[in-house]
Design brief:
Blueprint (H helix, E strand, L loop, with lengths): L1 E6 L2 E7 L4 E7 L11 H10 L17 H10 L8 E2 H7 L6 H9 L12 E2 L12 H10 L4
Parallel strand pairs: 4-5
Antiparallel strand pairs: 1-2, 2-3
Helix pairs in contact: 2-4, 3-4
């Protein structure tokens, strides 16, 4: 099932199954009928209005390795308005030498915003990468009050 949400980043397509959020991506246009009422829409409305939102939603990370899941679940714990480095994230998952692997796991994040990988920066505080694009990463960080 697809849910579409018009955000400041563009149209977000949110793929769900009966109980869990599976993937978020940016699309050019809405291709199927829109589900009107869904909890994620209200949460995204609040988030894009600059409010602190806790995305405590059931998520589906099937298809990812156990390492990727471990990284993404650690990222989910980064507080709103805070950032950490890839190295700090590697240390948090008790694998301090896996900095590059952490970055690769973040590339596989199927749920940007819900799993806030935009809050992970390079050690020098530069942006690094983001699967919705660097413009979106910069926007989300500014939205959360991070310079």
């Amino acid at each position: 099932m697809g849910i579409y949400y018009k955000s400041p980043l563009g149209i977000l397509k949110i793929d769900t199954n009966q109980t869990k959020i599976k993937r978020i991506s940016i699309v050019k246009k809405i291709l199927i009928p829109v589900e009107k009422n869904h909890q994620i829409k209200a949460l995204l409305d609040s988030y894009f209005k600059g409010r602190k939102v806790n995305f405590k939603l059931a998520i589906d990370l099937s298809g990812l390795s156990s390492f990727q899941k471990k990284v993404l679940l650690a990222v989910r714990k980064i507080p709103y308005g805070k950032t950490i480095s890839y190295k700090e994230l590697a240390i948090r998952i008790k694998n301090p030498k896996a900095v590059r692997a952490v970055g690769q796991a973040l590339k596989k994040n199927p749920l940007p915003i819900i799993i806030p990988c935009h809050r992970v920066l390079r050690a020098d505080k530069s942006l690094g990468g983001f699967n919705l694009g660097l413009k979106a990463k910069k926007y989300l960080l500014q939205l959360e009050g991070i310079k």
